[in-house]
Amino acid sequence: VQLVESGGGSVQAGGALRLSCAASGYAVSSVYMGWFRPAPGKEREGIASVDRFGSTLYADSVKGRFTISKDNAKNTLSLEMNSLKPEDTAMYYCAAGYTFTLRSPDYNYWGQGTQVTVSS
């Protein structure tokens, strides 16, 4: 099982980025997947999750700005990020697991991360 993120970069506040996560070794349609980033006092903050049927969960901090989606045919996970803020600056990780949650301990497989930097 392998997850590889891409799409990170530097952008000015108010801008947009699209992150992708390519999965191998299993089908994204068979698991729950999510995006995470480090947060003060937390191991990793769950910011978005999608279940096997396309239902989604979002952290309040990104709701209305970020959109998570899966492409079962390409076996990829994406995160569309709009209206980016400097506080969105972080390493972003995709993960896969067997529970529909934003809690990082419930995820079993992790990518190496992709850096997003938002300047003011």
Structure explained in plain terms:
By secondary structure, the protein is mainly beta. It contains no helices and eleven strands. Strand 7 and strand 8 form a beta hairpin. The termini are far apart.
What is the approximate shape?
globular
* Percent strand: over 45%
Quick one: how many beta strands? 11
User: Number of helical runs?
Assistant: 0
Ranges with pLDDT <50 over ≥5 residues? none
* CA-based gyration radius: 13 Å
The helix/strand class is mainly beta
Q: Percent range for helical residues?
A: under 10%
Overall pLDDT: 95
Question: SSE string, helix = H, strand = E?
Answer: EEEEEEEEEEE
Question: What's the story with the biggest beta sheet?
Answer: 7 strands, mixed
Oligomeric assembly: single chain
Give the distance, in angstroms, between the N- and C-terminal Cα atoms.
Answer: 37 Å
